[in-house]
């Protein structure tokens, strides 16, 4: 398989680099990680700049308002924006990287026209209402009920770990529409407006001190039936599409950021004398090899999806598994390079990154679950339970 870039792709890279060099100095300073309204404003401003320059929704299909760029161009985009230190998707994560692509793949023409352009223009932020207090890894055990009443569903239940719920306009919500069906067959995928009466959002503080996610309580919330994506009770299939985007493509850009962080760590180790520690040097070397391998795996996955077209497959679980582990290891090494626990300056972004790296092997499906998927669906081993 040829993983080299073509001349046209290199030209795309040159033009993007030029634009980034002009656009980035005009950005306002990044707000504090805890000020979500300000972070939302910052992230959506950046999204609008991308839109105006023609770089929004690069990887979305053209008939969904995207640029219809090839996955390779999207990879170049991720590489260049990370290298230039451009903002990451932030509050636009769900809308751009999994709800939007799901609606593009599964929504009706009316739904695409209604929901996708505001995401691309930075006017609408989405969150993901999948997990519940008793339904995380076993997502199909979800109990939030939606009862049909005329043209609406009336929804009651509780969701948890809903990232960005405080600042979101829309939620991709999983509900149980048939309580009597086997658990995977009675679920529907809905777009819920976050200003609907009956929604209570209660922020949760993370280990890193941020109120990035929240509990969400739904008390007879009315959502129009036309907000359902896919058929009634066919939500599990639609969910698999969402999860394959989440695991397959949503974290790819961060690999470049991790490689940059690793270079910065090596520089710091050379500067502060830690480089003489051969065990630490080996650890950094192993990480370097791991991130290079992850980038190659990403290129391979992209080339594969270019070949087969459409939605990413279960290979995304291999990426998610290795990436989340490597990221944790990277920030573990960072703690060592920077001097360990007590020597941390608590204002430093390093500390926040170190603490939040611990969540990567849980968010978007735990490592154990990714291993189950790899074992059952890729290696064809018998089901665990
Ligand atoms: C930073 C962060 C952001 C998040 N954002 C969102 C969001 O925006 N929206 C949303 O809906 N959710 C979100 N989540 C929730 C996340 O998807 C769940 O935490 C995750 O799916 C695990 O579910 P759980 O926490 O209920 O753990 P549990 O399902 O209770 O699992 C506990 C442990 O048991 C293991 N386990 C469970 N079942 C099996 C099995 N069959 N085989 C092997 N091991 C098993 C798990 O791997 C885990 O180690 C977020 C989580 C984090 C950490």
Can you characterise this structure?
The protein has 385 residues and is α+β, with helices and mostly antiparallel strands. The protein is built from eleven helices and eight strands. Helix 8 (278-308) packs antiparallel against helix 9. The model has no long low-confidence stretch (mean pLDDT 90). Helix content is 48%, strand content 14%. The strands form two sheets. It has a four-stranded mixed beta sheet with strand order 1-4-5-8. Strands 2-3-7-6 form a four-stranded antiparallel beta sheet, with no helix packed on it. It is globular. It has helices at residues 7-23, 36-53, 71-83, 93-106, 109-120, 235-248, 252-272, 278-308, 315-337, 349-357, 367-378, and strands at residues 126-129, 145-149, 152-163, 170-176, 187-193, 199-204, 213-224, 228-229. The structure holds flavin-adenine dinucleotide. Flavin-adenine dinucleotide binds at residues 127-131, 136-138, 161-163, 213, 359, 362-363, 365-366, 368-369, 372, 384.
């Amino acid at each position: 398989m040829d993983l080299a870039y073509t001349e046209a792709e290199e030209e795309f890279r040159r033009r993007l680099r030029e634009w980034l060099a002009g656009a980035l100095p005009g950005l306002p300073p990044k707000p504090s990680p805890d000020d979500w309204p300000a972070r939302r404003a910052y992230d959506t401003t950046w999204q609008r700049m991308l839109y105006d320059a023609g770089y929004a929704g690069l990887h979305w299909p053209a008939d969904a308002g995207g640029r219809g760029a090839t996955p390779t161009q999207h990879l170049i985009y991720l590489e260049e924006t990370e290298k230039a230190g451009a903002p990451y998707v932030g509050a636009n994560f769900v809308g751009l990287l999994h709800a939007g692509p799901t609606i593009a793949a599964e929504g009706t023409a009316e739904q695409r026209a209604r929901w996708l352009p505001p995401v691309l223009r930075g006017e609408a932020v989405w969150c993901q209402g999948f997990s519940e207090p008793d339904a995380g890894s076993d997502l199909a055990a979800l109990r939030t009920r939606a009862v049909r009443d005329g043209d609406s569903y009336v929804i009651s239940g509780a969701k948890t770990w809903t990232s960005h719920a405080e600042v979101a306009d829309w939620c991709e919500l999983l509900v149980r529409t048939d309580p009597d069906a086997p658990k995977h067959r009675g679920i529907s995928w809905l777009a819920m407006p976050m200003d609907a009466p009956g929604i209570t959002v209660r922020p949760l503080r993370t280990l890193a001190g941020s109120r990035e996610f929240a509990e969400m309580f739904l008390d007879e919330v009315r959502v129009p039936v036309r907000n359902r994506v896919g058929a009634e009770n066919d939500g599990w299939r639609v969910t698999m599409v969402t999860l394959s985007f989440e695991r397959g493509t949503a974290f790819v850009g961060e690999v470049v950021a991790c490689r940059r962080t690793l270079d910065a760590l090596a520089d710091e180790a050379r500067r502060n004398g830690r480089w003489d520690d051969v065990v630490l040097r080996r650890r950094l070397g192993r990480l370097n090899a791991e991130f290079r391998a992850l980038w190659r795996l990403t290129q391979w996955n992209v080339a594969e999806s270019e070949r087969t077209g459409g939605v990413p497959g279960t290979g995304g679980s291999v990426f998610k598994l290795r990436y989340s582990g490597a990221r944790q290891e990277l920030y573990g090494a960072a703690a060592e390079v920077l001097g360990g626990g007590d020597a941390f300056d608590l204002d430093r972004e390093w500390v926040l990154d170190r603490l939040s790296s611990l969540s990567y092997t849980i968010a978007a499906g735990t490592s154990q679950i990714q291993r189950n998927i790899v074992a059952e669906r890729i290696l064809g081993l018998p089901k665990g339970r």
